[in-house]
């Protein structure tokens, strides 16, 4: 029940953020249409920045796994399963990797949280944005996503929901930092 209430609260927060974002951009003349399309555009932009955070987490996991697994292709599968498990967003390959290497993936999630504490806040924001955008677009999300991420060290429960522009800036700055 707590997960449902958390998701519901985040949906309410993102709805307010979307309305505020639309109002500000319409006022500045940057938003040409005031419709469902504007909401969808904002949600897609937010999800694009979630993908940036996921890619950064993937790169960090790949680097951490370099000593443990020599085969780059296998490392990529494990790193992909790690990130997809955090976001409860498995595809066929990562689901199979997760099933076959569950212990390694779970251990690496914990290692990623310990080795990269600077990713906890961005991961928390990305998880919140991911859930809010997916729900706003009418897609289903795992109702236990926040509990799983908290349990594995990648979610800060009392952190406030990020404003869209602040979230976009944070994702781009983190991308620049990890791209060096």
Description:
- There is one protein chain.
- This protein has 180 residues and is an all-alpha fold.
- It has one domain (2-178).
- The protein has helices spanning 2-27, 36-65, 72-86, 92-100, 102-115, 120-136, 145-151, 164-178.
- The longest helix has 30 residues, at 36-65.
- It starts with a helix and ends with a helix.
- The mean pLDDT is 83.
Q: How many domain regions?
A: 1
Please provide the count of β strands: 0
Distance between the termini: 43 Å
Please tell me the overall pLDDT. Answer: 83
SSE order: HHHHHHHH
**Largest beta sheet, briefly?**
none
Summarize the helices and strands and which ones pair or pack.
Blueprint: H1 2-27, H2 36-65, H3 72-86, H4 92-100, H5 102-115, H6 120-136, H7 145-151, H8 164-178
Keywords:
mainly alpha; 180 residues
Short description:
74% of the residues lie in helices and 0% in strands.
């Amino acid at each position: 029940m707590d997960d449902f209430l958390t998701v519901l609260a985040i949906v309410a927060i993102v709805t307010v953020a979307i309305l505020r974002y639309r109002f500000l951009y319409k006022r500045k003349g940057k938003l040409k249409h005031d419709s469902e399309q504007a909401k969808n555009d904002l949600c897609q932009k937010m999800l694009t920045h979630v993908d940036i955070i996921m890619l950064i987490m993937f790169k960090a996991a790949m680097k951490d796994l370099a000593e443990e697994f020599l085969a780059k292709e296998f490392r990529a599968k494990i790193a992909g399963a790690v990130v997809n498990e955090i976001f409860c967003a498995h595809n066929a390959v990562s689901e199979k990797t997760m099933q076959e290497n569950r212990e390694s993936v779970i251990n690496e999630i914990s290692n990623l949280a310990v080795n990269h504490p600077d990713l906890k806040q961005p991961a928390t924001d990305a998880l919140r944005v991911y859930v809010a955008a997916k729900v706003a677009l009418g897609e289903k999300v795992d109702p236990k996503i926040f509990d799983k991420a908290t349990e594995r060290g990648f979610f800060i429960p009392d952190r406030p929901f990020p404003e869209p522009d602040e979230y976009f800036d944070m994702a781009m700055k983190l991308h620049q930092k990890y791209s060096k």
